Amino acid sequence: MRYYSDLEVELLIDDLTVIALEAIEQAAGEAARAAFLQNLEREAEAMREAARQQAEVFRLRNEAEILRRAGIKNNVLIGVLCFIGGLAVGVTATILITR
Fold first, then answer.
1. How many CA atoms are closer than 13 Å to the CA of 23, on its beta-carbon side?
2. Which pTM value belongs to this model?
3. What is the pLDDT of residues 27-83, one digit of tens each?
């Protein structure tokens, strides 16, 4: 059995301390890198969601504009048809009264 001197034990402890500190630094760096990547992914997902919502708003605005134009067209068409109908009734009534 071999006995170690105090100096050898202290050198071994120092070496193990240095190795442990390097491992801790490496683990901390990897943890920081992982946290950064996770935040980056969350931001990217938020940006994708914002783009989806913006596309949905754009689609709804276009749909509302199309419906508004169709409503105006329908109102004009109904107005013209009512005018023609009223004109026909008026002309027919005039013809019937004058006979």
1. 6
2. 0.55
3. 999 999 999 999 999 999 999 999 999 999 999 999 999 989 888 888 988 999 999
* pLDDT number for residue 51: 97
Q: Which residues lie closer than 8 Å to 18 by C-beta, 6 or more apart?
A: none
| Structure tokens belonging to residue 73 | 């067209």
For residue 83, what are the contacts with CB-CB under 8 A and spacing of at least 6?
none
User: Residue 74: which H helix or E strand, with range?
Assistant: helix 6-98
The DSSP annotation for 79-94 comes to: HHHHHHHHHHHHHHHH
Q: What is the DSSP string of 5-60?
A: -HHHHHHHHHHHHHHHHHHHHHHHHHHHHHHHHHHHHHHHHHHHHHHHHHHHHHHH
pLDDT single digits (tens) 8-35: 999 999 999 999 999 999 999 999 999 9
The DSSP output letter for 1 is -
